[in-house]
Amino acid sequence: MATIEECREALSRLADSMAGADGDVRAAVALDRSLSCHIRDLDTTFSGRLEDGRIMVLNTRTGPPAEKAQIRLAMTGDDLVAMVDGRLNFAKAWASGRVKLEASFRDLLRLRTLL
C-alpha cells in the first residue's frame, strides 16, 4: 500500500509533468480550478489548485474533502502512484470505477484530451 509521502511525491511528479506539457495537453490543463484528491485507502485528502497547467497542493487533511472542489478525484494510493508512473491507464481506471472524477461537464470536456 502506498504511503502518504509516496502519494505526495506522485502528485508532485504529476504537477511537474503537467507544467512541462504542450499542445492539446497544455490546453486541457490550462484551467484555474480548485482541486481535491481523496486517497480512499489512506483516508487522506490533498487539496489545492490547478492553475496555469500546474497542480499546487495547498493542504493535506485526514478524511474526505472539507469543501467541494471544482475538480474532485478519488482513488487508492496505489492507483495514484501507478497512474503517475504510467502503469495504470487513467481512462480504463475511470471506466472501471477504480478512479472517480467529478467536475463540471465543461471541465470534463476540456480534460478529456488527458484520457
Task: For the structure shown, list the relevant keywords.
115 residues, alpha+beta, five-stranded mixed β-sheet, 5 strands, 29% strand
Descriptive notes:
This protein has 115 residues and is of the alpha+beta class. It has 5 helices and 5 strands. A 5-stranded mixed beta sheet has the order 3-2-1-4-5. The radius of gyration is 13 Å and the shape is globular. The two termini are 25 Å apart. The mean pLDDT is 88.
The main β sheet shows up as: 5 strands, mixed
Task: Report strand %.
Answer: 25-35%
What helical percentage do the residues reach? 40-55%
Mean pLDDT: 88
**What is the alpha-carbon Rg in Å?**
13 Å
Order of neighbouring strands in the sheet with most strands: 3-2-1-4-5
The helix count comes to 5
Query: Kindly, what is the distance between the CA atoms of the first and last residues, rounded to a whole number of angstroms?
Result: 25 Å
pLDDT below 50 for ≥5 consecutive residues: which ranges? none
Give the overall shape.
globular
Tell me the series of helices and strands, N- to C-terminal: HHEEEEHHEH
Tell me the number of strands. 5
Structural class: alpha+beta
